[in-house]
Amino acid sequence: MSQAIEIIPGDGCDEPPCLETGNPRFGDLVTRRLKRRDVLVGGLASALVALFVRPSGGRAGNRLDFKPVPVSRADCVAVPEGYRVQVLLPWGEPILGRMPAFTINNSGEDQAMQIGSHHDGMHFFAIDGSSDDGLLVVNHEYVEPRLMQASASGLRLGVDDAYLIDGRRPADDVLKEMNAHGVSVVRIHREADGGWAAVADPRNRRITALTPMELAGPARGSDFVKTKYSPDGTSVRGTLSNCASGATPWNTYLAAEENWALYFRNDDSKDGKPDQPREHSQYRVPRGKTRYHWELADNGDDAFVRFDASRKAPSPTEDYRNEPNAFGWMVEIDPFQPDAVPVKRTALGRFAHEGVVFAPPTEGRPLVCYSGDDAKFQFIYKFVSAQPYSKANAGGHLLNDGTLYAARFNDDGTGDWLALAIGQNGLTSKNGFCSQAEVLVNTRAAAKHVGATRMDRPESGAIEPTTGAVYFSLTSNIKRKPDEVDKANPRAENYFGHIVRWTEEGNDHTATRFRWQLFVIGGDQASGRDLTGRPLNENNLFACPDGLWFDADGRLWIQTDISDSFLNKGRYEPFGNNAMLCADPQTGEIRRFLTGPLRQEITGVTTTPDGRTMFVNVQHPGAHTSADEFAHGGPGSHWPAGGSTVPRSATLVITREDGDIVGV
Ligand code: FEO
Ligand code: CA
Ligand code: CA
Asked: How far apart are the CA of 592 and the centre of ligand 2, in A?
C-alpha cells in the first residue's frame, strides 16, 4: 500500500493560487502572508466584556509561535509558513480484503474494504509507543449519495430525493452508503522521506452501519431495545452518524452517535394525530421519510427495512419500533482487537452525542468523562463511574455503572451537576421515569426535568492538561430569543457561537459543583471577543466553534463548522472557509492555523505521541452543490485531486519542515 510521497512546498506569495497536484497522494500546501485591516469594535460585544475574567498571571511566554494564515475562500488547504501538509486516506482508499481501487463505480461490497466518507473524530493509537507507526481510527459521520453513486446523476444534485428511482433505492446503493458510514481502523506509518502511508495489517478494519454490536449498561435487555433482530435487547446492527470521538485511558476508542434520528422514520398515528413515543419524538425521529431512504431498498432486506420504526406487527419483537432506541449512544471499539464486538455504553446517556473527553484518571478514584448533546437548547453531561479506576484492570466495565449528570450554569458563575439517577431529583415513576433504563433512553427528558441549563448546541469538550479546566464549544443557536438569554448563553440569535470553560470544585472531576467563565465569543471584529475582552481580529476571527482538543503542551485547537449552506454568504462572509485555530488558554491569544477547501468543515485532530505529526480531517468538501451549480461546472469543490474530480473527505497530515512540534 506504500506509494511515493509528493509534498509541495509553499511559495510564500501573498495571494497564492490553489495548489493541486492530482497525484495519488493528493499532496498540497499553501503558504500565505498576512494583510492588515482596520479593527472595528462596538455593539453588543462591548457589553459582553464584563462576562470575561482577565487571566491571572500565567506565563508571559508565547506558546503560539506560528504565523497565522488569513481567511481563505479558495478550494485548497492553507497552513502557516514552515509547515507542510499531505493528504492521506481519502474516501474510497482501499485498506483491506481484496483492496478494490477507488472509482465512483465501486460497489457496496467494495466500500466495506475502503475508507468511509465524511471523516470526523479521530485518534492515533501508537504501536509500541512509536511516533512513526500506529493505528489511525477515523469516524465517518455521513455520506452524500449525489457525490458517491454512479446512479445519482450530478445533474440532479440539490434536488431532494433525487436518488430515489420509482420510489425505491437500488439495494447496492444502500449497501454502499451504509458501508461508507461507521469507523475505519487503519495502520499508517511514516516513510523514509517523511510522508505517511497506509499499510496492510490484520488490524485494518471497517466498522459500518451493519456491524453487529453489543448493548451494555442499564439499557441492555430493557424493553426499550428489544427488536425483531434482538428479542432480548442485547444487540444491534451498526453505528450511525459518528461525529467526534474520544480515547479511553485503557487505549480504546469511543465513537459518538450524533444525528442518528434522521436515519429513521416513525409514521404511527392515533386518532389522526402523530403518535411517537417520547424516546423518538424528543430526538426528532422524522415522519414520512428518512435521511437516505434506506428503508426503501428494492430488495426489502431486513437490515434495510429496519429504518422504518413504525409499528408493523403485534409485538415489539416482531418489528423495528424500538430500533431507534439502540442508537444515540457512545460506542466502544478496541482497535487492537479486530475481532472484538463494538459495545454501546448506555450508562453514558442517549442523545446527539457530539463526542467524549475523559478527565485524567486517578488511581483509586472514580473515572470521569464529559459529553455534549449537539442540538439547540440541549445539555452538557458528565459521567462518574461507580467503580474506582485502577490502571491494572481498567476497561469498558467502568462505563457500565455510574452516575450521569447534567450541567446547570448559574448566572453568578457557579454551576451544579444534577444527577440523572432514578429516584433522585424528581426522576420517579410519578414523573414518568420508572427505571434507570428509562432515564437513559430518555436522557434529554431527564435533563430537562432536573433543570439543567439549555445550551447553544454543545459540541466538543476538551480538558486543559495543566489545570484540569474543562472547555466546551457551543456552536450557535439562532433560535434563542432575547428573553431566553442567560450568562452562559449570552446572545440572542447566537449566529457565531462561543466557548465556555469551568473548573470543578477542589479541582476534583467528581465534584458536583464548579465555577465557569466564557473563554471566547465567536464573531468578526465587531462581535467576537477573546478571553480578555479584546476584539477578535483578522488573524483569529471565527464562527461556529465545533471540534476542541488540547495537545500535550496545553494548546487548545479550535475547529469551525459554519454550515455549508451558509459558508461565505451574508453574515458569515467574513469568515471564509471553515478553519482550525489554536489558542493559548492562559493568555487567551488565538491564531488561525489552517484553512480548508470549499464547502467543508474541519473535523477531528490527533497527534503522534511526540507531537511532531498532526492529523486533521476535512469533511464534506463540495457539500450543498445545487443542481444549477453542477450544471455549470460540477461539484462546489474538487478537493483534493482538483480538475473535474469528485470531492472526497480525507485526512491531512501536518508536519513542520524543521521537524519540530506542531503549534510551537
Ligand atoms: Fe457532527 Fe455536532 O458536529
Ligand atoms: Ca462536530
Ligand atoms: Ca458539526
From this structure: 18
Q: Which amino acid is at 383?
A: F
d(CA 455, CA 460): 13
For the chain, which residues score pLDDT lower than 50? 1-43, 46, 49-50, 53-61, 155, 158
Class level of CATH domain 5-69+87-224+235-656: mainly beta
pLDDT in tens, 152-183: 655 455 455 667 888 899 999 999 999 999 99
- Asked if residue 242 lies in contact with residue 344, where contact means CB atoms within 8 angstroms, the answer is no
- Nearest ligand to the CA of 578 is 3
| CA 245 from centroid of its chain's CA atoms | 7
Can you tell me the distance from the alpha carbon of 166 to that of 1, in angstroms, rounded to the nearest whole number?
A: 41
Domain range annotation of the chain: 5-69+87-224+235-656
Cα 470 to chain centroid distance, Å, stands at 17
| pLDDT (0 to 100) of residue 540 | 98
The answer, yes or no, to whether any atom of ligand 1 lies below 6 A from the CB of 546, is yes
Report CA Rg, the chain.
24
- Supply the DSSP symbol for 154: G
Per-residue pLDDT at 382? 98
Q: What is the pLDDT of residue 629?
A: 78
Q: How far is CA 209 from the centre of its chain?
A: 17
**Distance, CA 351 to ligand 2 centroid (Å)?**
14
Q: What is the DSSP letter of 482?
A: G
pTM for the model:
0.92
CA torsion 323-376-460-499 (nearest 10°) is -170
Which atom of ligand 1 is nearest to 241's Cα? 1
Burial class from Cβ neighbours inside 10 Å (0-12, 13-18, 19+) for residue 566 reads: middle
Expressed in angstroms and rounded, the spacing between residue 459 Cα and the centre of ligand 2 is 6
What is the reported pLDDT for 273?
A: 96
DSSP 342-362: PEEEGGG--S-B---EEPPP-
Neighbours of 340 (CB within 10 A): 15
